[in-house]
């Protein structure tokens, strides 16, 4: 299963006729160029799970960079234009561990 299929599966497991009306997943673009991913963790099994922040590369000088953290009950990740799969992979590796 690829990252998109795994993310869809994680999302479906959170949907309980309540969670999906208030929370969810956002994937957006950045103008440097790159990706921004925000995944709500409230009312999921991940809400209190520790996450070690990740930072690699330089968004100013490098096309291959990522920053991943958990803040305010959200998994927040940004990365270069070719790093969307990696950002999703970081989340899923943590979520499925």
Question: Main attributes?
Answer:
single chain, 97 residues, alpha+beta, five-stranded antiparallel beta sheet, globular
> What is the distance, rounded to the nearest whole angstrom, between the alpha carbons of the first and last residues?
16 Å
Number of helices, counting only DSSP H or I runs of 4 residues or more:
3
Strand content: 25-35%
The helix/strand series, from N terminus to C terminus, equals: HHEEEEEH
What is the residue-mean pLDDT, rounded to a whole number? Answer: 94
Write a structural description.
By secondary structure, the chain is α+β, with helices and mostly antiparallel strands. It contains three helices and five strands; from the N terminus they run H-H-E-E-E-E-E-H. It has helices at residues 3-14, 19-22, 84-96, and strands at 25-30, 34-40, 54-56, 66-71, 74-80. The chain has a five-stranded antiparallel sheet, with helices on one face. Strand 4 (66-71) and strand 5 form a beta hairpin. Helix 1 (3-14) crosses helix 3. The chain starts with a helix and ends with a helix.
Short summary of the structure?
This protein has helices spanning 3-14, 19-22, 84-96, and strands spanning 25-30, 34-40, 54-56, 66-71, 74-80. It contains three helices and five strands. It has 97 residues and is an alpha+beta fold.
Give the secondary structure arrangement, pairings included:
Blueprint: H1 3-14, H2 19-22, E1 25-30, E2 34-40, E3 54-56, E4 66-71, E5 74-80, H3 84-96
Antiparallel strand pairs: 1-2, 2-5, 3-4, 4-5
Helix pairs in contact: 1-3
């Amino acid at each position: 299963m690829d990252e998109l299929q795994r993310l869809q599966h994680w999302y479906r497991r959170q949907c309980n006729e309540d969670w999906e009306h208030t929370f969810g997943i956002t994937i957006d673009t950045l103008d440097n160029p790159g990706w921004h991913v925000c995944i709500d963790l409230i009312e999921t099994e991940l809400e209190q799970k520790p996450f070690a922040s990740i930072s690699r590369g330089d968004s100013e000088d490098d096309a291959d960079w990522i920053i991943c953290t958990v803040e305010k009950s959200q998994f927040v990740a940004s990365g270069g234009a070719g790093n969307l799969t990696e950002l999703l992979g970081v989340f899923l590796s943590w979520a499925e561990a």
